[in-house]
Design a protein that fits this description.
The protein is α+β, with helices and mostly antiparallel strands and about 200 residues long. It folds into two domains: about 10-50 and about 120-199, no CATH class; about 50-115. Helices cover about 30% and strands about 25% of the residues. Helix 3 (about 25-45) packs across helix 4 and helix 4 runs antiparallel to helix 6 (about 180-185). The protein is elongated, with a radius of gyration of 20 Å.
């Protein structure tokens, strides 16, 4: 699935929304909203969902099972301290097990190469993109569809409300829509986060 493929279409947004203002948006505006929503979800979760090839360096744990940092679609290569491991079993794409070998303890001594991400994109993520796209479409201007999308997502206005996302120094983060945050939470990396405050 190429990176420029949208998880949902402008038609999906129009068919699912009850907001007339959103139904009337052009395809180009809705496409921009969808792309922005996809980017926001991937930034929020610290995970790239669209399938991509990559090599990950993991810390060995002296076990025959090692947890993966992201969803693994397929394995190309696994090396432990430079030695190829071939007797592998993937468990729900979240960890891999070796039948005869151990992932010896070490720092970045396990290399897992393969295709990471999701194919197909989970329905929860598609729903999150819809909800964010719908909100972005409400604040976009048909005359200049990039207006609402070009500004950083740090400060956003919805009607008379304005909110600002800020770092708390802890692991808190938001997309700006609590329902979307809850949909995405199971897919979220445990790294970094941000809070939302109404101002």
């Amino acid at each position: 699935m190429p990176e420029d493929i949208l998880w949902i279409s402008p038609k999906d947004v129009r068919d699912s929304t009850e907001i007339k203002l959103v139904k009337g948006k052009t395809d180009s505006v809705l496409n921009l909203c969808i792309k922005r929503a996809m980017a926001k979800i991937q930034a929020f979760s610290n995970v790239k969902f669209t399938p991509y090839e990559d090599r990950k360096y993991l810390d060995g744990n002296d076990s025959s099972v090692i947890e993966l940092p992201e969803n693994l679609i397929s394995i190309t290569l696994v090396l432990v301290d430079g030695v190829n491991v071939t007797d592998l079993i993937t468990n729900n794409n979240k960890n891999i097990s070796s039948i005869n070998d151990v992932f010896y303890s070490g720092t970045s001594n396990v290399i897992v190469e393969g295709v990471w991400g999701y194919n197909p994109i989970p329905e929860e993520l598609k729903m999150g993109v819809f909800l964010l796209s719908e909100s972005l479409a409400l604040v976009s201007n048909d005359m200049d569809g990039k207006k609402a999308l070009a500004s950083p997502f740090k400060i956003q206005r919805f009607g008379s409300f304005q909110y600002e996302m800020f770092s708390t120094g802890g692991n808190k983060k938001t997309t700006g829509i609590p329902e979307v945050d809850m949909l995405i939470k199971p897919f979220t990396s445990k790294a970094n986060a941000i809070f939302c405050e109404v101002i």
